[in-house]
Specification:
80% of the residues lie in helices and 0% in strands. It contains 4 helices and no strands. Helix 3 (42-110) packs antiparallel against helix 4.
């Protein structure tokens, strides 16, 4: 046991036994090539300048068209959101009216005294509800058409205008 303890005291860390060599980056100079000075002909220079000018012009048109399209999409989204909120309000109003009509019908059924009154009351309720549901459906359908035309028309005219500007 003393032999194991004495060995552990004598052992040096492995990193101290091996030292890695340190390498430096080699230093060299880049060769200098003697290239002749070639002058680009004026015609090539002019063509290159025209190409750059056309690219700048196309970029400006494209940037303006994309900004206009972004604005159009933002406006269309706002219109669609407003229309969807209005549609949702109408759906909630219709649901509330239908629920109130159902509760009124249930209360009226409780007060009925004969089977004949039940049939008459039920027929009247069904007739009224059919008319109300018909009207609600027409109103909601009109809102959907209005929303579709309000959102589609600006997109159609904007896209047409953007393509005319780019062309």
């Amino acid at each position: 046991m003393t032999e194991t303890t004495s060995r552990s005291k004598k052992a040096a860390p492995v990193a101290a036994l091996f030292e890695l060599p340190k390498f430096d980056m080699p230093k060299f100079e880049l060769p200098k090539f003697d290239l002749p000075n070639i002058e680009v002909p004026a015609a090539f220079r002019e063509i290159a300048e025209q190409g750059v000018a056309q690219a700048k012009d196309a970029y400006a048109k494209l940037k303006a068209a994309s900004e206009e399209a972004t604005s159009l999409i933002e406006d269309t989204y706002a219109t669609a959101a407003k229309g969807a909120a209005e549609y949702n309000r109408k759906v909630i109003e219709a649901a509330r009216a239908n629920a109130n009509a159902a509760f009124d019908y249930a209360i009226a059924l409780i007060e009925v005294k004969s089977p004949g009154e039940i049939v008459a009351l039920s027929a009247e309720h069904v007739r009224e509800q059919f008319g109300v549901l018909s009207e609600q459906t027409k109103e909601l359908g009109g809102l959907v058409q209005k929303l579709a035309s309000e959102t589609a028309e600006p997109i159609k005219s904007g896209v047409t205008k953007a393509f005319k500007n780019v062309a």
